[in-house]
Amino acid sequence: MPRDTASRDMKLNALAVVTGGLTAAAIVGTGLVTGLAADYTAQKAQAKAESKATAAAQLAAAAPRPVAAPTPLPVRTVVTTRFVQATASAGQGQVSSGTSSSTSGGTTGGTTSRAPAAAPAPAAAPAPAVAPAPSAAS
């Protein structure tokens, strides 16, 4: 029994429309459910973050931080007293000249002769300490 081609085309077109509609509905439904799940997860995360922030604020307000007191560092004073006396070699008739001569010849054995340096000048003696004068009231 042969079928009518118009009836067959109409049934195939209806099947394609129904299949396409169901596919579109499945895609839209999947996107809707995924969006709702993401929104629910974000709300839970926001509530959890707010509760943690509230707990941290209460903890910080309940226990004030102790103020760190500065610790004194050890102090050590070192006093070194040195007495330096000038030598009197220049006053005993020794005269030194500050001349020097040298020959330069690269690596051919140049020589250098130098006179001894002059002695340093004697240091001035410190002034003696003066005792305070007695007061008339005593």
List the helices and strands and how they pair.
Elements: H1 5-62, E1 100-102, E2 112-114
Antiparallel strand pairs: 1-2
Question: Short description, anyone?
Answer:
Helices cover 42% and strands 4% of the residues. The chain is mainly α.
Q: How much beta, percentage-wise?
A: under 5%
Give the CA-CA distance, first to last residue: 154 Å
Helix-strand string: HEE
**What are the low-pLDDT stretches, counting only 5+ consecutive residues below 50?**
94-110
Strand pairing plus helix content: what structural class?
A: mainly alpha
Could you give the order of strands across the largest sheet?
Answer: 1-2
Would you report the number of β strands? Answer: 2
Radius of gyration over all CA atoms, rounded = 54 Å
Question: What overall geometry do the principal axes of the alpha carbons give?
Answer: rod-shaped
> Roughly what is the average pLDDT, rounded to an integer?
78
Major sheet details: 2 strands, antiparallel
Fraction of residues in H or I helices:
40-55%
Quaternary class:
single chain
What's the helix count? Answer: 1
Protein architecture, described:
The protein has 138 residues and is mainly α. It has one helix and two strands; from the N terminus they run H-E-E. The chain has one helix at 5-62; strands at residues 100-102, 112-114. A two-stranded antiparallel ribbon has the order 1-2. It is rod-shaped. Mean pLDDT is 78; it is low at 94-110.
